[in-house]
UniProtKB/TrEMBL annotation:
The lineage of its organism: Bacteria, Pseudomonadati, Pseudomonadota, Gammaproteobacteria, Oceanospirillales. GO terms for molecular function: fimbrial usher porin activity. Pfam families: PapC_N, Usher. Residues 1-27 form the signal peptide. It comes from Alcanivorax borkumensis (strain ATCC 700651 / DSM 11573 / NCIMB 13689 / SK2). This is Type 1 pili subunit FimD. It comes from the Bacteria.
Length: 820
C-alpha cells in the first residue's frame, strides 16, 4: 500500500471545523424542511453508490460519542460525553435516564408522552420541549417547561448511589516536641491521632485512636470510637453499631456502646444548615492547642504565636469543648467553649427519627443501660414539632419542642425538658426542668448570627452525664443558666469583625464562667492588620484577659510571590510580648516559612523558625524556638494511606467520603480539588480526599495539560458516593495520532465527497471533504478503515508518534476488495 506523508504542526481545531463544515450545515438552518441531495452530482469513475443521507438530515454530527457542553433552559449545567444516534429524521443526542437525572429533568413527567423505559428518552416528544445541537460549538441546549424539572438537581435517587470499592484507609496526624530548660532538664512529648477504617461491600468500619507519650508519664493508648455503619436507602437512614457517641440535637451527647438507627439528613435536601464552631484564641509562643470533649481528646495541633482560628475539628456531639493552650514555657491556659447543635427544621411533610440503645461508656464510672428515641415532623406551615425521650435504670428525661422557619426573619426553636433521677444507692432523688431557646439568621449578606441561645434549668435538673457521675458519689456543680452567641459582621471597606461569647451560672455558686473572643480586621492599601481580644473567667473568679494587635505587609512586586513582614504585640495579665518576622512561600509553592524574633514579658529575647510543606501526599511542619533559658524543637506530619485492589495511594487527609480518579496508568494527569490541584501517581491514580456524600460529584480532568498525543473518551465523570464510600471514577485515556489524509482509489481517483470513514468496529470516525481529505484520530488498536459503498479499505501507520501535531499524508491508496 503506497502513501506519501509530510509532518506539520497545524491547528487541529481549525482543520476539524473546515472539514466538518459540510456536516454542520444543517445545524445552522432554522427551517424545519429537509434538504435533499442527489448522488448523481457526486461523480466517481467506478459509479459506486455513495450514501450521503447523513449530509441532508440530522443534527450535523454523524453517529458517535462527542464531548458536549449541555445547558438546560439557558443555564450551563455540565460538560460530558453524549452519544449521538441515528433516527428516522436524522441523528439526535441520546438522553439516557442517568443523564436526565444529572440534568435535573423530571423523567416521570415524560412518561405521559414517551416510553421512558427505552435507553434514550425522547425529550422533544413533550410539549414545549426542544433539543438544539450546535455542531460547531459542540453545545447542546435543552429547553423544557418548568414542570419538567426536579426541585433540586442535587437530590439523587438511591439507585444511583455508589457504594464505593473495598479498601483499607488510615488518616494520621503525628506531632512531637523536645524542650529543655536552663540547659539542664529536658522534656519530650509525642502525640499521634489515627483514624483507621475499612470499607467492605458498602459496610464502613471506623476506629479512632490516640497515642500520647511524654517524659515522666506512661505511654497511653486511648480509643475514642470503634464502630461500623451502613446506609439503609429504603429508609433514608443510617445504621451504626459499636463504640461511638450519641450525636443528638435534643439530648446532651455522651459516649456509648450500642446500636443506632436514624435519618441521615445528607440523603435529603438540606433546609437548615447546622452549626460548626470555630475555636479562636491567642497564642503567645509556638503553642500546642488541645481540644477535648466528654473527656476525650478530639483535636491537637501546634500553632504559631498570635491569634489562631481552628475550623476543621471533627463532627461533634452536644457538649462543652475544653480548649487548652500550652505555651513553650509550659504554662497553660484553659477555657470552655459551649457547643450546641441547633435543632434542625424539617421540610414540610417529612419525618426524621433516631433510635439508640446501649450502655453508657466511661472507664471511671458505672455504665448503665439506656434507650433513646427522637422524632421530628415538619408541618405544612413551616413549623417543626420534635420530641425525645431517654430512659435508663435510674434516670429518664423527656423533651418536647417546636421550631419555626420565619423565612427572611430566620429560624428559631424552643423546647422544654423534664428529668427524673432516682439513684439506687448513693445520692438523692432529683427532679427538674430545663428550657432552651435558639435562634439563627443571616440578617444581611454581611451579617450572620450563627447561633444565639439561652438555657435555664431548675436546681433539680440533671443531664444523663451528670446523673451517671452523681450516682457514682461525685459532687458536681448544677448549671443554672447558659447564654451563648456567635456573630460575624462585614463592614465593607471598613473591615470585618466577629464575636463569640458565653456565660454560665450555677446553683449554690456565686461565681460565673465567662468566655469571650472578639476581633476586628481590615487592610490599609497592601497592609493587613487585626485587633483581637479574649476574656476567660472561671468559677473561682480567676480572670485572664489578652489583647493582641498584628500587621502584615507584603514586600516586592504584586506579580511575584510576595514575602511578608509581620509584627505582633500581645498584652495579657502577665505582661507584654512582641515579635517581628518574615514569612512567605519558597520557589516551590508547596513550601512556606516563618521566621520571628521578639521580646517576652520577662525581657527575654526569643527567636523562632518554622518550615511547612503542603504536598499531594502529606503535610509536614517543623520548627524551633530559642531563648536564654529554654530551647524547643517540634515537628508535625499528617496525611493518609489508602490500600485497595489497584494499589496503595498516599494522599492528603481523607474526609469521610472520597473519590479515586483512575486514568488507567497515565501519570501526571491533573484534577482540581479544593485550592490545590492533584495529579495522578505512577499508577495513574489520584485521590480526591474531600467530597460530599449523596450529592452528584463531577470529576473532571484538566484536559489542557494532557499530552497532545493522548486522547480520552470521557473528560469528566459523574458519580454519587454514599457516606463513607471511596468511589472509583475511571477515565479511558489512550495514545492517538492525528492524521490528515487525502484518500484516493487504486485507480488514482479522489475518494467521493461526503463518504463516511468507518473503523473495524463499525464506528464512524470521519467524513471526506470535497478535495478527498479526512481528519482521523488514529489509535494503535485500529488495524484498518473502510469506506462504505466503495468496498475499499486502507490502514494508517502502526507506530503512534509521540510528537504533537498532525501528520499529513497527501496520497493514501484505498484498496478495493479483491485487488492486490
Amino acid at each position: 500500500m503506497a502513501h506519501q506523508k509530510k509532518r506539520y504542526t497545524v491547528n487541529s481545531l481549525g482543520l476539524f471545523i473546515l472539514i466538518a463544515s459540510a456536516q454542520a450545515a444543517n445545524a445552522e438552518q432554522e427551517t424545519q424542511t429537509t434538504t435533499h441531495f442527489t448522488s448523481h452530482f457526486f461523480v466517481n469513475q467506478n459509479n459506486t453508490n455513495i450514501d450521503i443521507s447523513h449530509l441532508e438530515k440530522g443534527q450535523g454530527l454523524i453517529p458517535g460519542i462527542y464531548p458536549l457542553s449541555i445547558s438546560v433552559n439557558g443555564a450551563q449545567v455540565t460538560d460530558t460525553d453524549v452519544e449521538v444516534i441515528s433516527q428516522e429524521n436524522g441523528t439526535a443526542p441520546c438522553i439516557t435516564h442517568p443523564l436526565a437525572v444529572q440534568l435535573g429533568i423530571n423523567t416521570p413527567y415524560y412518561s405521559r408522552y414517551t416510553d421512558i423505559t427505552m435507553r434514550c428518552i425522547d425529550i422533544a416528544a413533550a410539549p414545549n420541549s426542544f433539543l438544539t445541537l450546535n455542531a460547531k460549538r459542540m453545545n447542546l441546549d435543552i429547553r423544557v417547561p418548568q414542570i419538567a424539572l426536579t426541585t433540586t438537581r442535587q437530590l439523587i435517587e438511591p439507585n444511583l448511589w455508589n457504594k464505593g470499592i473495598n479498601n483499607f484507609r488510615m488518616n494520621y496526624l503525628a506531632s512531637g516536641s523536645k524542650q529543655s530548660r536552663d540547659q539542664q532538664s529536658s522534656r519530650s512529648q509525642f502525640y499521634t491521632d489515627l483514624n483507621l477504617g475499612a470499607d467492605i461491600n458498602g459496610i464502613h468500619f471506623r476506629s479512632n485512636l490516640n497515642y500520647s507519650d511524654s517524659t515522666g508519664q506512661e505511654a497511653d493508648w486511648q480509643s475514642k470510637e470503634s464502630y461500623a455503619y451502613t446506609a439503609i436507602p429504603s429508609l433514608r437512614s443510617e445504621l451504626t453499631a459499636g463504640e461511638t457517641f450519641l450525636r443528638s440535637n435534643l439530648i446532651d451527647g455522651f459516649a456509648f456502646t450500642g446500636i443506632s438507627l436514624g435519618t441521615d439528613r445528607a440523603m435529603l435536601e438540606p433546609r437548615f444548615q447546622g452549626y460548626a464552631p470555630v475555636i479562636r484564641g491567642i497564642a503567645q509562643s509556638n503553642a500546642r492547642v488541645s481540644i477535648t470533649q466528654n473527656s476525650y481528646t478530639i483535636y491537637e495541633q501546634f500553632v504559631p504565636p498570635g491569634e489562631f482560628a481552628i475550623d476543621d475539628i471533627p463532627s461533634l456531639s452536644n457538649g462543652d469543648l475544653t480548649v487548652t493552650i500550652t505555651e513553650e514555657d509550659g504554662s497553660q491556659k484553659r477555657f470552655v467553649q459551649p457547643y450546641t447543635q441547633i435543632p434542625n427544621l424539617v421540610r414540610p411533610g417529612l419525618w426524621e427519627y433516631a433510635i439508640t440503645a446501649g450502655k453508657y461508656r466511661n472507664d471511671n464510672t458505672d455504665e448503665p443501660w439506656f434507650i433513646n428515641a427522637e422524632i421530628s415532623h415538619g408541618l405544612d406551615n413551616d413549623v417543626t414539632l420534635f420530641g425525645a425521650s431517654l430512659v435508663s435504670q435510674e434516670y429518664s428525661i423527656h423533651t418536647m419542642g417546636v421550631g419555626f422557619n420565619l423565612g427572611k426573619l430566620g429560624g428559631f426553636s424552643v423546647d422544654a425538658s423534664r428529668s427524673y433521677f432516682r439513684p439506687d444507692e448513693i445520692g438523692k432523688d432529683a427532679d427538674g426542668n430545663s428550657y432552651r431557646f435558639f435562634y439563627a439568621k443571616s440578617l444581611t449578606r454581611s451579617t450572620n448570627i450563627q447561633i444565639l441561645g439561652y438555657r435555664y434549668s431548675t436546681e433539680g435538673f440533671r443531664t444523663f452525664n451528670e446523673a451517671v457521675i452523681e450516682s457514682d458519689g461525685s459532687i458536681i456543680s448544677q448549671r443554672k443558666s447558659r447564654a451563648e452567641a456567635t456573630l460575624t459582621q462585614s463592614l465593607g471597606s471598613y473591615g470585618s469583625l466577629y464575636f463569640t461569647g458565653s456565660q454560665e451560672k450555677y446553683w449554690k455558686t456565686k461565681g460565673e464562667r465567662n468566655f469571650l473572643v472578639s476581633g476586628y480586621s481590615n487592610n490599609y492599601k497592601d497592609m493587613n492588620y487585626s485587633l483581637s481580644f479574649s476574656h476567660n473567667e472561671n468559677l473561682n473568679g480567676k480572670r485572664d484577659n489578652t489583647v493582641s494587635i498584628s500587621a502584615s505587609l507584603p514586600l516586592g512586586s504584586k506579580n511575584r510571590r510576595p514575602t511578608y513582614i509581620n509584627y505582633q504585640q500581645t498584652h495579657s495579665d502577665a505582661g507584654t510580648d512582641f515579635n517581628a518576622g518574615i514569612s512567605g512561600l519558597l520557589s516551590d509553592e508547596r513550601f512556606s516559612y516563618n521566621v520571628t524574633s521578639g521580646r517576652s514579658n520577662d525581657d527575654l529575647v526569643e527567636s523562632s523558625a518554622r518550615l511547612s510543606y503542603s504536598g499531594q501526599s502529606t503535610g509536614i511542619t517543623a520548627g524551633t524556638s530559642h531563648s536564654k533559658y529554654h530551647d524547643l524543637y517540634f515537628a508535625q506530619a499528617g496525611g493518609s494511606v489508602l490500600v485497595h485492589k489497584g494499589g496503595i495511594i498516599f494522599g492528603r487527609r481523607l474526609g469521610e467520603t472520597a473519590i479515586i480518579a483512575d486514568t488507567g496508568g497515565v501519570e501526571d494527569v491533573t484534577f482540581q480539588t479544593g485550592a490545590l490541584p492533584i495529579t495522578t501517581n505512577s499508577k495513574g491514580m489520584a485521590l480526591l480526599p474531600q467530597v460530599q456524600p449523596y450529592r452528584q460529584q463531577e470529576v473532571s480532568m484538566d484536559f489542557s495539560k494532557l499530552d497532545a498525543n493522548l486522547e480520552t473518551s470521557n473528560r469528566s465523570h459523574f458519580i454519587t458516593p454514599e457516606r463513607g464510600a471511596v468511589s472509583l471514577a475511571k477515565f479511558n485515556i489512550y495514545p492517538t495520532q492525528r492524521f490528515l489524509v487525502r484518500i484516493m482509489s487504486d485507480n488514482g481517483q479522489v475518494a467521493p465527497f461526503g463518504s463516511l470513514i468507518v473503523d473495524a468496529g463499525g464506528n464512524n470516525v470521519s467524513t471526506i471533504d470535497s478535495s478527498g481529505y479526512a481528519l482521523i484520530n488514529h489509535t494503535q488498536n485500529q488495524s484498518s478503515y473502510f469506506i462504505p459503498g466503495t468496498g475499499c479499505t486502507f490502514s494508517l501507520p502502526d507506530q503512534i508518534e509521540s510528537a504533537p501535531g498532525i501528520t499529513i499524508i497527501d496520497k493514501l491508496i484505498c484498496v478495493t476488495s479483491g485487488d492486490n
